Amino acid sequence: MSAIALLVTGFSAFITGYLVYSRYIAKRIYRLDPDFVTPAHQFEDGVDFVPTNRHVLFGHHFTSVAGAAPIVGPAIGVIWGWLPAFLWVVLGTIFAGAVHDFGTLWLSVRHRGNSIGTLTEEIVGPRARVLFLLLIFFLLLMVNAVFAVIIANLFLANPGAVLPVWGSLVVALVVGLLIYRTGAGILAPSIGALLVLYGLIWLGQYVPFTLPDFFGLAPTGAQISAASGDPAAAAQAAANDGRRISWILILFAYTFVASVLPVWLLLQPRDYVNGHQLFVALGIISLGVLVTNPPVLAPAVNLALPSDAPSWFPLLFITIACGAISGFHGLVASGTSSKQLDRETDARYVGYGGALGEGALALTSILATTAGFALYVGAEGWQEHYASWSSASTGATTAFVNGVGVLAEGIGIPHAVATIFAAVVVISFAATTLDTSVRLQRYIIAELGAEYGIKMIQNRWLATFIAVTSCGLLALGLDRGAGGMRLWPLFGTTNQLLAGLSLLILTLFLLRLRRPIWITVVPMGFLLFMTTWAMVLNLLRFVRESQTMLLVVGGGIFALELWLLFEGAAAVRRVRSART
């Protein structure tokens, strides 16, 4: 199979979806009003509610939702073959993910910029709001823990990426000050920032950075066994554990600061610059595919699955969440983006367009891992890498980074620079998601505090401290941070469950307005069926493998799901009765 054919087919479908389907939704279903006063103007405060240029907001929204997940999920999901992953990414993005993101953004704008959790009370009922907030808290807890571990591992594996990633923060602060304090415009500062960033990427290959081992951990029995009796190798593994812990602590200290700063100072400019970087990355990968035209060496449908790999149905739709549809996107859309939307008509560009951008990133992840990485290691090497579910999960970012390196090398970029570039792309987007996610978790903690009359945790400093501490404890409590990817299946099911429930709330609102609901009901029903099935399979596996912590967390989430579904069904009956 030609990689070019997949690239052209996927991109053509995304463009058609935006020009045709999103226009129909905007005019006939959501009926966007250019004169509607958005919450950014109604409640402008210079911290969270800030009217924002739609291109800047697109950059913030796009990079906040396009974290590591649309790269990692497809890089794992191709274990079942490139065809199921390709179809789910393309069709899921157009008919489910983009509809969800566009809809939750519009819904929040129509309700004073309230988050999807708060809207649950207005549309479903007061009990449902608390249940929804708890579900969101668990999801954000896992998102932050998993992404912190992913970033820490990438820093360990790619020391040349450390300088450009942390240097980009300084660049973003300068851009924010130039745009909002000097009136310098957005084009020149952002282009200048991008050039500085690529200079840092080139410099990174000559200035790799590795943290010292602050903790001096002793090797575990598993590490000694894996090293086959080699004391030096076991000691090196323990030292990496110490460095991983250090990076996780540094990352959460940074996110604490980033989540309490005004959005215009760091979050917006950094996301805007990273948005440009993402488009450049998509361009480099796409051009590499067009120039090298690598064959897709991975099977279309993998009929020789490893023994520990689950069935693709329903786990494919859970493993590939971001990049097709993701409940986390609704949290970003209703949590931060809706508070910055300048005009309601911008919701189509930001919401639907941002989801298509993430779908494009997921598509390039499929091509990088099934064509670029396969070309790098050969067909046998690819089969060896995907010889087990564990190897596919832990080596997902490695496959992507090396695959991008091969494709970029095909257009004249040195392999060393290309791999650093790919690592910076993954880290940057994971970090922007981490920034936004911690901020959202602070909102959720404050809302829970208001619900139960606990004024202390409504303070943004204390709420942020609770958020980063709880996430840090979860990340570090899984085999010194090395076991963070064990949360991925649970993250996927919770994420997709949240997307299905958000579509349920959107459906109820459309019912009240007496508008067509088929565009939300179809993906909602599909998602809720798949996530419920997958959650049951996961819980059974946790029981078999005696994974007590995951069983407790997963069981609690499953109970919240069932309760919310009953509340939603009751709300549907109430709405239909009121309409009658």
Can you walk through the features of this model?
It is a single chain. With about 575 residues, the protein is mostly helical. The protein is globular. Helices cover about 75% and strands about 0% of the residues. It contains 22 helices and no strands. The chain starts with a helix and ends with a helix. It has one domain.
Largest sheet: none
Low-confidence stretches: none
Number of strands: 0
Query: What structural class should be given to the helix and strand makeup?
Result: mainly alpha
Count of DSSP H/I helices: 22
The SSE order reads: HHHHHHHHHHHHHHHHHHHHHH
Overall pLDDT, averaged? 87
User: Which descriptor suits the 3D outline?
Assistant: globular
Helical residue percent band: over 70%
Q: Rounded to an integer, what's the Rg over CA atoms?
A: 22 Å
What is the number of domains? 1
Instruction: Kindly report how far apart the N and C termini lie.
Output: 54 Å
Strand content: under 5%
Short description:
With 580 residues, this protein is mainly alpha-helical. Helix content is 75%, strand content 0%.
Highlighted features:
single chain; 580 residues; mainly alpha; 22 helices
Please render the helix and strand layout as text.
Elements: H1 3-29, H2 39-42, H3 54-65, H4 69-77, H5 82-109, H6 116-123, H7 126-157, H8 162-181, H9 187-204, H10 221-226, H11 231-260, H12 267-292, H13 312-319, H14 327-335, H15 346-385, H16 389-394, H17 396-409, H18 415-451, H19 460-476, H20 488-512, H21 518-544, H22 548-579
Helix pairs in contact: 1-5, 1-15, 3-12, 3-15, 4-15, 4-17, 5-14, 5-15, 5-20, 5-21, 6-7, 6-20, 7-11, 7-18, 7-19, 7-20, 7-22, 8-9, 8-12, 9-12, 9-18, 11-18, 11-19, 12-15, 12-17, 12-18, 13-21, 14-20, 15-17, 17-18, 18-19, 20-21, 20-22, 21-22
